[in-house]
Predict the structure.
Amino acid sequence: MKVDGGTAPPTGWTRQRERSNRWQLRVMRVLATFAGRRATRLLLHPIVCAFILDRQTRHHSARYLARALGRPATWGDVYRHLHTFAATVLDRVYLLRERFDLFRFEASGVEAILEPFAKGDGVLAFGSHLGSFEALRMIGHEKGLRVAMIMYEDNARLINETLAVLAPRAELHTIALGRVDAMLSIRRWLDEGGVAGLLADRSLPGNSQRSKAIALPFLGAPAFFPDGPFRLAAMLRRRVVFMAGLYRGGRDYDLRFVELADFANLSAAGPAVAGERDAAIRAAMLRYVATLEGLCREAPYNWFNFYDFWADADTPTSPSALP
C-alpha cells in the first residue's frame, strides 16, 4: 500500500493474526450456554490475569491507554482494558445467538441509519475495533434492519468457521471482498435497503493501486488509516455512518451513530470531479478519525487494537506507558 510521500509500513496486525482454537471455542459455547452469562463472566478474571502477563500485550495496551487517558497507564488500567475486551468477546456468543434479552442498550444518532432505511436506501456503516460491532445486531433486531458485514475473503471464512462453532444456528450475512462479483453484491444489498458494515481502522495487506494508507492525526500522533473503504463509498455514491457499540459494564451497551458523509451527490465520472471526490474522501476520513478519537477518550477501555498502531509515529511528547 502506498502512503502520502512513501510506502506504508507493514501492518502490525497482519503479523499477529487472530487465531481460533475450535476446542476452546466449543468449551466457551458450552459454558456460555449452560452456565449462563453471569457465571461464565467469573472466568474472565483468570483469563485476563494470564493475558496481562504477556509483555507485548501489556506494552501495547499501556501505550495506547497513555495516549487516550493523557497520563501514564497503571496496571489497573491495563487490567480493566483487557477485561473489557474479554467481556465483549464473551458477549459476542450471546449477541450472535440473538439473546438480546440479556442486554440493555441506549442508542444515539440512530436516525442517521433509520431515515434512509425508511426511504428504502442502504447505508454503509463504518466501524472500528472499538467496543462491539456485533452490538449493531441489537438495533437491527429492534428496528428490522438487514445487516451484512463486508470483509476480505480470508476473514469472512474465519468468521463463518467461528460462527459455526459458537452459534451454529445464527445467520450472519457476509460479503467477501476480492471476488469478481463483490461490488455487484454490495450494490445489490444497498439497493435493497440493507446496512453494510465495515471495520475501517486497519490498513489491509497487499498492494492496491486504488487504495492507500494515509497518515492522519490520532491521539497526539499520526497513524495510518486506509482510504479504501471511503473510496468504495464514493464509488457507490452512498451515505456513510460511523457506528460503535461501547461497552459500559455489566449488561449495558451504548450505541453511537454519526453521519460522516453522503456521497450521493458526487458526479459519476470525469477528470474535473476527481479533485472533488478526493477532497470529499479526505474530509470523510478526517471526520471518521476525529469521531474515533473522541470516543477513545470518552470510553478508553473499549479500544481493541493490541498492536503498535503508531508504528512509525512515535513522539517524545507522548505520555510514558507501562513497561
User: Anything to note?
Assistant: Residues 1-20, 313-321 have pLDDT under 50 and may be disordered.
